[in-house]
Design brief:
- This protein has two domains: about 5-170 and about 340-390, Alpha-Beta Complex (Quinone Oxidoreductase, Chain A, domain 1); about 175-335, Rossmann fold (3-Layer(aba) Sandwich).
- Helix 6 (about 175-185) crosses helix 7 (about 200-210).
- The strands form four sheets. Strands 3, 5, 6, 9, 10, 17 and 18 form a seven-stranded mixed beta sheet that branches. A six-stranded parallel beta sheet has the order 13-12-11-14-15-16, sandwiched between helices. Strands 2-1-4 form a three-stranded antiparallel beta sheet, with helices on one face.
- With about 400 residues, the chain is an alpha/beta fold.
- It has 14 helices and 18 strands.
- One of its GO terms (molecular function) is formaldehyde dehydrogenase (NAD+) activity.
- Belongs to the zinc-containing alcohol dehydrogenase family.
- Its cofactor is Zn(2+).
- It is an enzyme of class 1 (oxidoreductase).
Amino acid sequence: MGHSSNRGVVYQGPGNVEVMDIDDPKFVSPSGKKIDHAVIIKVLSTNICGSDQHMVRGRTTAPAGMVLGHEITGEIIEKGSDVEMLNVGDIVSVPFNVACGRCRCCRELDTGVCLTVNPARAGGAFGYVDMGGWVGGQAKYVMVPYADFNLLKFPDREQALAKILDLTMLSDILPTGFHGAITAGVGVGSVTYVAGAGPVGLASAASAQILGSAVVMVGDFNKERLAHAEKMGFVPIDLSQHDRLGEMIAEVVGVPEVDSAIDAVGFEARGHSGKEQPAVVLNSMMDITRVAGNIGIPGLYVTDDPGADEKAAREGSLSLKFGLGWSKAQTLHTGQTPVLRYNRQLMNAILHDRLPIAKIVNAKVIPLESAAEGYASFDAGVAAKYVLDPHGLIA
């Protein structure tokens, strides 16, 4: 590759992203160490994620100049001398987690909290604040470390290209939704409630359905997103109707409670006043989940939120009715999704037409150069999942 054939989406400060020339990827870690276990990927598809949006809104401590993007699918064009199981030309899904495959957590498949790829805390990710400084993949090319461990190779090139819009969801939102459903204890016959009808909420709902849920309700204030959720076969719960969620659930299933609840909203949650109440979703989940039921929390919560309304929330402290959950013997499950635990099974579900996830999340392809417009529409609550096409290769 010649000098800077690379372009990427760069965070320039709150509300401002720009597509610009960025450095070509090299076999070097963020700390400057030469690494041989990496590959260089030509990015075929990369998606805009709600967690990117938190940064772009200025709701994290993300520094200006960061290349964004952690949902990456692409073709290997170069590999380090220590990569044994993959070849140039392979089309692969890149989990958003950067994981070493060698530490205690990775060995137990807790790849969302790898102990070695981020000096600041457990857990690494591409193009994300506090996640180790790995350069993001909303770009034409990106370096992926620990390639043998992290990458999921698609079995057939033509098939992969034909289904790229579904397969692109394997890097994050589909496994994240699935993890939400699994940790919420969803199984055959479960009554399930999902908070949030954005892409992760829809992926959670689709996951609950494939896991055998009897009824999947999806709650939101956004009318367009609710209409799309209903079209996809989920029961919409319009939270603007009134603030008694249990009553709305009882109208659907006869009792004001569910077996499994999934929080796909996270820390920028809003209450009925329209004001931010970062714990409002978690508190309502504890309220509606049955005694001894489970709550999965794929929605993002942060340790620092400089844009929060409440002083406590700026440090990630929430007004949580924890006594309610405790007295009901509920299980709450938090944390980044360990994508590797699920992506192979979900790939098979996609390849065998069991899970039309692109349709469910309403995937919309836009050129890399239009990323800023994609961020703006997604921020405005459009019922779509934006997929960036850096090389104009997606049909």
